[in-house]
């Protein structure tokens, strides 16, 4: 279901570069993500994938380049400003509110979308909107039965789901997911993959992942990064068969196991 | 202001600044490496001064007094760290604030019980009790130059320690990333004990060498504590270089402030800090807090 | 529901007991309790920052002192000032100071923040002590307490009467408690607790955290001003020592000792600290020594503060159905319990 005018990409990146002193972490990256598309970013460790996500979310400022979200130029914007534009970002390491319950985590996230939280007197529980959005997000993520547990009491897989549920509670149009499957077992991973498939209908998703099975089953398009540069970008078949990608992975040596996954992934 | 007066103020600024550096460097290391907020730092300065008072009377000579007092200060710092500070690492900063505040009260009363509440003077060592004449009427005390020289020597020794030794490397690593340093298997307990003891010794040394110049009185700890904090904030936490730059900056601001605009000189230091915070919230040489 | 919530029970009991105060106690104790209740307002205002928003201010005495000075400045020399005009004015001055200082210090975080708050309070201390404004280091007297004169000549209470002042202080304390709890349960309150728990995530969700922190800082400053005003009115003397960093340290001790985030913890801390001071002060002139030892012991023996004792003792008999984040987020013990159930 495309709720965006077909011409405007959800995300459009040109010439994105990030330097840390002498280190060039991301160099001249270009990327397009259409509404409703799942776009995976893969590459060996140190490829600059997390830096890329941080640049897109506003957690880092680019050294050069342009980032357009739904047509609006956002490079140099702070993280909170980018988020308010309709971007939801999940973290590789659980970045939740540990002392709040799962429900409260999502409710707080949903509250971010209210025009203003500078309300001092009305009891927060009387404002239904964030509550309903939180319930909806938890339901989508399959966490509704665990809603009233303190977040730190959830299993690791459930925390990863909560990470995603929080971003959903803000009703984003663009999702930036940094290794949502990190540290999960097979069953939990399958649950997250199923969730992402459901989400693709109404969201554009940029997904950084190492799990090749998940990537190839989910992604509409894949971008491969090595040492900060885009080595290949296109649909899964093209990427799988690309000589440049094979060389890049073999070249780095350490990614043998990923290569194997490459070959095996459907 | 004529040149000679200006020169005198410059020398005073440098001397004050270098003394502040001794205090601020200890404070910044203790925070940068151990993550501990040490409110009791001013108390160590005060204890150093009172120790100098007693040991000089006993030994007859300030430098002998310092030679006896410094090892005591180091020992004291080690004991304090093991008994109290070490137990609070895993807890909120707030409890360190509370603990060190309690320590201030205890040290202050102990001082009152042992030495009383009067103001005391400590005699300048005979050998240094003369002045270099600058004009017919003005001269500069050699002892003050000695203070600056000692502080510079300590600064040099710290530079060597931190930049050129293995231990210094551990210290630098600890400031940059505490958890990583621990996971590398470095005995963090040892490092912490040493760093805290070093901080205590630096503060005590500052108190000892300043005693002949600033006299020894009950409120001296509190006064210098806050200025030391300002220096650390301006310089950047964990940065010795920053502590030196900021200390000199404050030394000049305070000294010239008192001479040029005494009504507002008390505020001068804080106005400088306000300016730095506006432009560089992490201090001149600090990293942004994680 | 039906939980023996300390947040409701304790203050109700306390107010009831205190209301009977002047009926049973002599003037000395009535005045002492008045002083303590004013300090409770001061401590609760700091708890909003420290316990609820996670902002440790070591310079809170500045806003207390500034309001006291405002009253001194606005009091004509031989007449009483009007309470209804001077109290809001004094609180506004404190709020303004908090706005300006907050704008500068909230650019920092962690230790920098703590040190910066301390330093700015020192700056104001230096200002009042050295510039000679309003009495300089000698201070200034307020000869007549402010009068509560309404248009039409009605005076609902007379601060010159000890009992009246007592009830005004009690009303102020109860009023501030209710106000702060209301704020904590509002949308704003939730944002503060979220900022305390994980500020970076709050920003990542889209909250402009700086604004909320600044608002908390200003509210906190204004309420500290209320305490400072009442304190100046009670003692009739204002000097720079009101802004001394030891006062900032003391009120911070009250908050930490009492148990952070619960508000009534701050009240407990204030009562205990003043009472301990009073008792020890009566025993020896060197009472700061056992006081310091008491504080050090409390650090190791009371990890949750005094309010934590209540929670681990009486409050745990029944479990809350859907714990309110303000309660849960400040009650590590309840969280562990719930986790053990999971």
Any overview of this molecule?
The complex is a heterotrimer of chains A (266), B (290) and C (342). Chain A has 266 residues and is of the alpha/beta class. Chain A folds into two domains: 1-86 and 172-266, Rossmann fold; 95-171, no CATH class. Chain A has helices at residues 49-57, 79-84, 102-111, 128-141, 156-169, 186-200, 212-218, 236-241, 243-252, 256-264, and strands at residues 11-20, 23-33, 38-42, 64-69, 72-73, 87-90, 174-178, 204-208, 221-226, 229-234. Chain B has 290 residues and is mainly α. Chain B contains eleven helices and two strands, in the order ααααββααααααα. Chain B has helices at residues 3-34, 41-59, 62-83, 93-115, 142-164, 166-176, 178-183, 188-214, 220-235, 240-260, 265-279, and strands at 131-133, 139-141. In chain B, helix 1 crosses helix 9 (220-235). Chain B is globular, with a radius of gyration of 19 Å. The mean pLDDT of chain B is 86. Chain C is built from 15 helices and two strands. Chain C has helices spanning 6-19, 21-24, 27-52, 61-74, 83-105, 110-130, 162-184, 187-205, 209-235, 245-258, 264-283, 288-301, 305-313, 325-329, 332-341; strands at residues 140-141, 237-238. Classes of the chains: A alpha/beta (266), B mainly alpha (290), C mainly alpha (342). Chains in contact: A-C, B-C. Chains B and C meet through helix 4, helix 9 and helix 11 of B and helix 6, helix 10 and helix 12 of C.
